[in-house]
Specification:
Strand content of chain C: under 5%
Order of helices and strands of chain A: HHHHHHHHHHHH
Strand content of chain A: under 5%
Shape of chain C: flat
Structural class of chain A: mainly alpha
Order of helices and strands of chain C: HHHEEHHHHH
Structural class of chain C: mainly alpha
Largest interface: A-C, 66 and 79 residues
Shape of chain A: globular
Distance between the termini of chain A: 52 Å
Number of strands of chain C: 2
Chains: A mainly alpha, B alpha/beta, C mainly alpha
CATH class of chain A: Mainly Alpha
Strand order of the largest sheet of chain C: 1-2
Radius of gyration of chain A: 20 Å
Oligomer: heterotrimer
Number of domains of chain C: 2
Number of strands of chain A: 0
Number of domains of chain A: 1
Helix content of chain A: 55-70%
Chain lengths: ~280, ~525, ~250
Amino acid sequence: MSSSLTLAAESTAQRPRRLLLALGGALIVATYLFLVIVQPAEIAGGMGSTASLVSLFGFLGGGALLVGGILPMLTTSSLVVMPLGIALNIAIGQIAGSLGMQIYLDAIGTVLVAVLAGPAAGAATGAISNAIWGLFNPFALPFAAGAALIGLLAGLAARYGAFRRVYLAPVAGVIVGAIGGLVAAPVAVFMFGAAGTFGTNAIIAAFRSMGDKLLVAATKQGLLSDSLDKIVVFVLVALIVYALPQRAVRQFPFARTYRVLGTRTGTPTRAAVQPAGK
Amino acid sequence: MITLDSETFAYDDGVPLLAGLALTVRPGEYVVIAGASGSGKTTLARLLAGMTGADAGSVFRGSIALDGETIRFTGTPTDPRIDPAAWSSRVAYVAQGAWGQLSMMSATVGEEIAFGPSNRGVPPERLRRLVAEVAAALKLTPLLDRDPRRLSGGQLQRTIIAAAVVQRPRILVLDEPFQGLDDDAVQDVAAALEALRRDGTAVVVCEPMLPLSAPSGARVVALADGRPVFDGALDEGLRAGLRRYGIGAAGDPPRVDPGIAADRDRRSPVPGPAHEPHREPAREPDREFDPPLVILRDVTFRYPAAGEPRPQTGLTGVNLSVSAGEIVAVRGPNGSGKSTLLQHLDGLYRADSGSVTVGGILIRRQPTGALATTVGYLFQDTDQQLFERTVLREVSYGPLATGSRRADGARRAAEALDRVGLGALQNAHPYELSFVQRRLVALASLMATGPVVWALDEPTAGLDEPTRSMLATLLTRHAAGGGAVVLATHDAAFADAVAHRSIWLEDGRIRGTSTAS
Amino acid sequence: MPRRRIYNPLTELLAAVLLVVLVLVVNRWEFSLAVLVFGVLPAVLLSGRARQIGLAIVLVAGPLLLSSLLLHGLFFPEGSTVLVDLGIARVTAEGLTFAAGMGLRMTVFTGVLLTAAMTMDIPELLATMTHRGWNRKLVFIVGSAVGLLPHVALRAQQVTRAQQARGLVVGRAPLSRFRALVAVTTPLVIGLLVDASERNSMLEARGFSSPGARTSYLPDTDTPHQRRARRAMVAVVGVFSAAWLVIAAVA
């Protein structure tokens, strides 16, 4: 039936701009390899003008290309949760940062969006989130590509069932966190000399006192902190999404199609005996 | 003109609603869709708005005819899909709850109203003219440069209505637009709706109760359990005995279970603050109330200047004493400090000077959470606390957090749920309940922790008649059992029927006290 | 809010970003200091909100500087000029130099970007992006996220109060803190998601998926002049950076 009030029978979802995605991804990988392989000499002492420029442009530009590639494929239902994810990232991240905690908690929104709306929306949330936060806290800016990676990986983890069981979430968190930490370390080193909160710097200091180079110490710290951080974040997000009403989850095509939360319903009998808040 | 012909509608839970309902709304009509919680009002409103919920797993069979064009639905995946943008330019919809309807990207009311047309690429000059016209009609012109996130309830509601009608639809559907507004704001919103109706726009309003006054010629469609039970003029509706369907009229006193509160039935009109300006808080009414459970002595409180979104009234020299067995209503206009006063009772706010004693405990520096066993607080916005995935777990949170053993907590939660009539919904998800039921879950959470003092902020807002009467009974029983209740409310009929005493606040000061009976 | 601004936010933002790039390219403490003294300082003083911006810069950069000083000042194994030996920690001249250089760089970044951000008129920026035909989805995500931020913070505060009223007491143990975090974030997220689902229908109804360009209710404060200036700035900084880096590499 054709009518001015109804939509055409099939509206094809817009496809992503593959070229931009490929370029962005390649740029980020190339930047990382450049920093880790080509520049080890500079880590010793100098502040590294080339290295910091490359990390700024490579990671930020790569993130921007990714976002540009992802935008056309975002549905309205993904679009409305992304600002929410960004606001959560910044609000909670700012609190955790000001408390000087060893973990960041600045990816809760990214992981939440990734679980509900998929890896693409997650990646875009991570990247834009750090770009906006970067205006108020410049230290977040160069981590945009790392944040996009977290969103992407969290979405993929959700797609392959990491959020169907509560005990799988921390496992996925460790892996995603380790990769994220690995990627974030050179940025932190080349841009800011690995400055962070007192908590993270104490860990770096411990490795430095054992004679590690700054990049090595920061990488080890990144592996530690990020893994721990992502365990907490993934478990937290898992608990939040389990508490969501079915109807709220079902409005997301991604979560519906890939049965991200499995066959979870109210699980009434278990619920009655479990303590609250656990 | 729109005609909805519903054979049946079912959400994903499969329970059929709106079976055999036919409704036609003509140009310029004012239709009130009244029904208790769960009667299918919102479903009906959303169907009129073209939201058949097919993408969320709902099944609708029937047809909707809009201006001579009929769209049929058979409840199958091949059903036509309504184009929301095209539909909304003829039928605008204002859902419940304001925040979800702001784009959140507009810094001014003007931009928010312009959001729709600017999405459609309307050129800037025409955009500004459209906004100016609709703002003038809804008396929003002075607010055009204000931040929509910092408006009062009535102003916000009018802004959202303006944003919905800027495309000049012929029909406007609103789901409980007056919920949580005080009398002045209700009048403003009603006046805005009238202004639209003068231009020939039909207005459909969902309400939990019959309004006492509505524009002349208003028509009522009453729903009960998803079925239409009445369709006719409002004054007929008020006389049609719709109470048996749980549909009361706004302003009626609640029905308190007679066995409990026989002595509270006769009520003389309560004088307002102008008639009886006591300087001192009322003396303890008589010997039947003692010992005092709540004592506020000369409490003064100022909000910190920065940080709050709106400058709020503090409290100045407030004295109040509430005895065991007593129900006290705190009344006064919006922003007079009612919620602020209430939040002093459980330590959410701490007095700058003066003292607050509750249940014999002087509130000093102890954490708010430690007072939860003594004072239970019902927030105006229930949805800020529900976080568990079943109703039972939700209600058990309080007892468990305050040290009850697990089995004990579950038992107390189940008891509390039975008392508010939600015993059958223990395993439901709190957010899949209706507004009224969520409110009851919050009340049950409070009751399960077993505090002796109840502090309730606007407990009757948005309730239907049966729930309002049940609430009255619960409060009366709690007081009769030696507890104390302090409630902030706009609901005069409720306060007059239930409270022993009303105190009137104005600008953070007690302006007067009126004692019932 | 008193504010003194001359240029379109997009121009100012671009200028700030290019300044950061220049600081990285030149990579000399003298240049960083010059930017700080002759660029950031006057901008902050003339902004009309000097106190807030100054405070924000101190709050953001201060802890980082301090922790960076402790980290590199005390633990810099590559350093050879030992000033004080504290056993496991050694204060070295190289470490202090590194910390000072990095610290200066961080202060400049913070100063430049925070001043730009805190004097920026976000609605005007969004309007400019719309007038220049930026992707409407991107403009929505950015605008809505910035608009939601204070709302989320306020709501988190209200949820915390509501949970405290029900008996939530946040202890010091990690598990207790984590439980508190769950008790606060869950209703926060659910509430925001419920709003978002309503906003989803609202966006569809308001024609957000319409094809073509969006228009803006706010006037276009951008000028062809500024557009040309922006392109010129990018070109100049680009050429300068390339030249500088090549010369540095050759030398």
